[in-house]
Amino acid sequence: MEEPLRATTISCDLHLTTLTKQTVFYEPDFEILTSDGLRIPVHAAILGSASPVLENIIEGPHKHRRSEKVIPILGVPSGAVSSFVGFLYTSRCTEEQIEKYGIHLLALSHVYLVSQLKQRCTKGLSGRLTIENVVDVLQLARLCDAPDLSLKCMKFIASRFKAVEKTEGWKFMQDHDPWLELQILQFMDEAELRRKRSRRHREEQSLYLQLSEAMECLEHICTEGCTSVGPYDMEPTKCRGPCSKFGTCQGLQLLIRHFGTCKRRASGGCLRCKRMWQLLRLHSLMCDQSDSCRVPLCRQLKLRAQVEKKSDDTRWRLLVRKVVSARTISSLSLHKRKRMEESQRTMSDHGMRNFKL
Ligand SMILES: [Zn+2]
Ligand SMILES: [Zn+2]
Ligand SMILES: [Zn+2]
């Protein structure tokens, strides 16, 4: 009863599924009709197993009427339909097919619920975005419910907006889908805001890290002494080489020496003395040694903080938390610390920076 297999336009000899192997020796029992009249003979069982939508059509009410055994797939080039049917048989399509029919295959995979092909097209089209095609691909991605591809398009447009807004695709979209234009502009605004926010966050982290380092250096200078300043009962070792954080230590030592000799002091409006006070206060809030701490005024400032409940207390506590967390993060990741120090070096003047509290 079996007739020899008729040649079809589909290459079904590659990687056949078990089902295909069983079925392919039967005569194709359906035809797919394309817009330009091409008829592609197909096996209903294979189509049905690859696409639930095609399965419904095949199993539909006209099932037993021979004349109805034609499935029209219209509105796309017949080459795209052939590639689509090829995928249903082999689960494969070539780069050339994606290159040539990517947008059609995406639409077909969406309409006929072939998720594997949809993924393949989404990925293929993401890598083939151009200034000319991106708006069209975006519109299609939205129609076909392909959020990953939509996002890729949005990012692409945002990064090359000046060129994209000159394209025909953009102008057409402006005229026909102003709502989408609004969404794209909104996305770009938000992306810009995210960039600004993360830049600000990096700058803040860098500042807290500088403060954290200043705290370490302050303790080190007041405990063991650095090149020119040390504890009152210890001669600063002139011959000691610069320590590992000398960039900060050097500025801090200059500041401490100024603080010891300045006639105007913080109360007289001296900004450098005021900065020193702020560093000492920050230290006293972060310091957990009780009597053994050798940083000047540490104990006095701690006592004063207990007595006074100043209105800016919360601000200081928040600052302490941020400095401590910057320190923790930096010690957790040595690599990150190196990057931060590089950015500090470029930002720094000479060791001490302009801390704004
Ligand atoms: Zn030092
Ligand atoms: Zn001063
Ligand atoms: Zn202390």
Written overview of the protein:
This protein is mainly alpha-helical. It contains 16 helices and three strands. A hairpin with a 4-residue loop joins strand 1 and strand 2 (39-42). The protein is 62% helix and 4% strand. The chain has helices spanning 18-23, 44-50, 52-58, 78-90, 95-111, 115-126, 134-143, 147-159, 161-164, 168-176, 178-223, 246-261, 271-286, 298-307, 313-332, 334-347; strands spanning 30-34, 39-42, 70-73. The longest helix has 46 residues, at 178-223. It has two domains: 1-127, Potassium Channel Kv1.1, Chain A (2-Layer Sandwich), CATH 3.30.710.10; 201-347, CREB-binding Protein, Chain A. It starts with 17 loop residues before the first helix and ends in a 10-residue tail after the last helix. It has a three-stranded mixed sheet. Residues 1-17 and 347-357 have low confidence and may be disordered. The structure holds zinc ion (3 copies). Residues 258, 262, 264-265, 270, 272-273 line the site of one zinc ion.
The CATH level-2 architecture of the largest domain is identified as Up-down Bundle
Q: Provide the CATH superfamily of the largest domain.
A: TAZ domain
Number of domains: 2
* CATH T-level topology of the largest domain: CREB-binding Protein, Chain A
What fraction of the residues are assigned to beta strands by DSSP? under 5%
**Stretches where pLDDT falls below 50 for ≥5 residues?**
1-17, 347-357
The largest sheet has its strands arranged as 2-1-3
Summarize the main sheet: 3 strands, mixed
List the ligand species: zinc ion
End-to-end CA span: 92 Å
What is the averaged pLDDT score?
83
